[in-house]
């Protein structure tokens, strides 16, 4: 593959704009196309990112079928992820799909099966996986400096001052704290302590029927526990701490964009390690996807598809425990021949 990676973006909302901005900080990345359900929205997006009108489309399908696009970034609302990913894969495109990867594990299995059958690259856009701060935490854990890691604690919450029609509270748009925020501590806990063996969850369900606060405790297959929480009603510290028998390492301020990490040991010593954070952070996942494409990989070793499937299964279990249901849970895809 050429050094240049040509990106198509599906969706023109806030997160799609953040990703398009990040492509400016991504070596070798070129924004080649954008698609929206409305042509005026696509043209406005294109104007903001110096895209010619011919590269702006009034449908998602045109991006999926565009000849000059190598990989499609899916930044549409949660319930559209599976449908859009399947559409892009059927168009022969590699896919970087925003979190949550799909609404449930069943949908995720459909998407992964299609990518594997077509031998196309597919990756979940769990951007925290690719941050330098996370790499440094894993390096410290591997060095044995804090001893055997036994516990992760992580929270992610902010106050959402929005009306009930906003996507954060709207069940038709996959609203709720768990899928929007809780997925971050879940994913990074599994990345640091290993596969999840079991989970126990509690939640507060809001007036629209989605969770506004959820807490869950994970037991990991290799030993250790994680205590995680998410909220769209409380501004939490959004920190992450990994503790072992010799000390702990903390991702400071907001762990998903940590400017530094701190190490504290039982002997009383401590230090702070600055960690780089370029642009808005999304460039790191674009770099990883581009690297995988150039090396001919079909999935990223940092976010393997089997792990994406496993974590979607954990989210399904949490939702079952807290009574959180979406329309996608009752929907049925067409039979395998349609895939």
UniProtKB/TrEMBL annotation:
GO terms for molecular function: nucleotide binding; oxidoreductase activity. InterPro entries: Gfo/Idh/MocA-like_OxRdtase_N (IPR000683), Gfo/Idh/MocA_domain (IPR050984), GFO_IDH_MocA-like_dom (IPR055170), NAD(P)-bd_dom_sf (IPR036291). The keyword Oxidoreductase applies. Residues 136-249 form the GFO/IDH/MocA-like oxidoreductase domain. Keywords: Oxidoreductase. Residues 5-123 form the Gfo/Idh/MocA-like oxidoreductase N-terminal domain. Belongs to the Gfo/Idh/MocA family. This is Gfo/Idh/MocA family oxidoreductase. It comes from Massilia polaris.
